[in-house]
Amino acid sequence: MTHIVVKGGTVVDGRIKAEADVVIDSETRRIVEVGPDLSGDQIIDAVGCYVCPGFVDLHSHLRQPGGEAAETIETGARSAALGGYTAVVAMPNTNPCMDSAAVINEVYALGKDAACEVIPSGAITVGRGGEELAPVGELYDLGVRVFTDDGTGVQDPALMRTALEYAKGISDAGDQDIVFAQHCEVSALSAGGVMNESEVSSKLGLAGQPSEAEELMVARDIALSRLTQMPVHMQHVSTKRSVELIREAKEAGINVTAEATPHHFTLTDEKCESFDPVFKVHPPLRGSADVAAVKVGLADGTIDCIATDHAPHTADSKAMPFDQAPPGMIGLETAFALANTELDLDIEQIVQLMSVRPAEIAGITDRHGCSIEVDSVANLSVVDPKVEWTVDAAASASKSSNSPFHGMKLRGKVKHTICNGEVVVKDCEAQR
Amino acid sequence: MKHYLSIDDLTREDLLELLSLTDTFAQVLKRDVPIVSALRGKRIVMGFFENSTRTKLSFDLAAKSLSAGTMPFQASSSSTQKGESLKDTIESIDAMGVDMFVVRHASAGVPKLITNWTEASVISAGDGAHQHPTQALLDCYTITIRLGSLQGKRIAVCGDLDQRVTRSNLAAFTKLGAEVVVCGPNSMIPPYIESSGIKVVPSIDEILGDVDVIYMVRIQKERKGKVLLPSLREYRHRYGLTIERSKLLKDDCLIMHPGPINRGVELDQEVTDDPRSVVLDQITAGVPARMAVMFKLLGSESQIESIKQNNGEKS
Predict the structure, then answer these.
(1) Model-level ipTM above the cut of 0.95
(2) Measured between alpha carbons, how far is A158 from A166 in angstroms, rounded to an integer?
(3) Which pTM value belongs to this model?
(4) Which of A65, A88, A405, B130 is the most exposed place for a label (fewest CB within 10 A)?
């Protein structure tokens, strides 16, 4: 029996913020003691650090099966662990798509030895094609709780309504343990657009996607959530009006939640002036008023969580003209540092945004986003909030290096990650 | 100046210097043997990823008139179709040892991206809807020859304003002191235009009588699959330079068009033959304008004096 002691840090979870050591039993994988001056067989130095419940990412593209040139579950999970994540929800736009029991089981199997827990999401429609409902019930029975066609939104409102109503009937807990996550984009309005539609796009001669393409579907899904009394989670919210719509919906008691990405609270569409496709992403980088609104939304709880939309792409596929390159950027290893640097929030709020709330939305609160107390499953992230470092995209554990933050100086870094009772990152180095 | 990618990168002084160089090379082209050795030994890749006839020939002739070696290169705009990334393509050519890439591409920003992958100079010969900066230079030169300068001149630009020719020309005209008004279907007027201080007028008829230059831009009913106006017939009705409208232009107003012209749409057939039309002068100006840019990027300034002397110009 080995006891790991996380020593000298300040424990921050959903309830408390206090200096304490944490002892973990590596066999039962649970926390066995929390308090001052504890000892154990292996010491994890947390002096000057916060000890938080492990981070949960609701939105990662791990690319496997099918996109192994850009990422695998192994490399993506390692990157996640280095970013302090103990669980990531894998998006279904793999090849084949995660719309069948076979592919879901493959992802579970590949994730078994990964450096963090890999939670597959299921597609809402067959092949994410937006026409036929995927076998939501069969996937639910395999443990899938998050459904999304991410990469595209479900365009047909009647089909989306059916999906929500159908799912309500298969959930063991009524509307409590299943969530539909929507990529909000009315494709007919955004079609052809490769960046935010703005003065910048019109100067560059790049076709734009208007903010309204996102906002229309946010508004529609708020209406569908009200109609069906089912929760809808708005993915990667990027515009000022989207934030306002969600705030109004929550005030009206409608069961919607939302996420925002680090790139949408950090970068603006002026980055596209370089024509470098590393800045191409959907939804696109927006204007400064949108960035400010997303920050306010994160601060006041309108936006429930930070999600990375980690989207690896090979160097080759990003070495193309801006309008031809695929959208997406990596972000697992920079998310905490960006939240710590860019947002004017205290650590308790960051823990809510990166661990507690996403764990609740994903329905995994039995083991993630938990209070740091005796008997909790040992999923912990130990972060140094003061250390300064410079992002080196090539140094990422991801197979891809398409980080838009390369060269940025950030404050705060994940020092250790403990996943299911095992030290998977120690002193910023992956252990597996 | 290392690259020539966008008029936005240039100052008024840069433009005036390039216009002066254009004039010098225009004199060279009037010699019995219209060639100078200014770029002898330089190797220029003609990277036309998008089809072009006149621009490509114009650049080729410009390079040859400077004694540079040219390497033709024609490829599909879609690197993916070839299975090779754009970066690989450029790096392979770069490895052969070249001094300059002239790049025409259907995607905005490609010339700028290419500067990341080579030490050679890069000229944009038109990229997507972004810029066509040598077209702007040759147009400014054409106006300068006819009207002395652009300073204080009233120039109307009409048609599809969301394309590369308009982006670079509006920037160049404005930098050189012209007063620019634009007119066209509202669905083809990008938002940056008004915020950059350029006046938008709803009707072409308002401005015909008091402009020094009317610059008609090529129109297409669809752009990238999006329908932006009801029909070309309606376009002619609202915005075309018809015979009737041409009669309202001043006697010395210049009629310009970057080509190729949709006869009977932007310009009526008869208007293209109007003595005020300088469409062919524009094409003629293309060669010395491109020589000027190539020389500015690759030549040595000391050579310009002897070129002027051999032209019989006073330095």
Answers:
(1) no
(2) 12
(3) 0.94
(4) A65
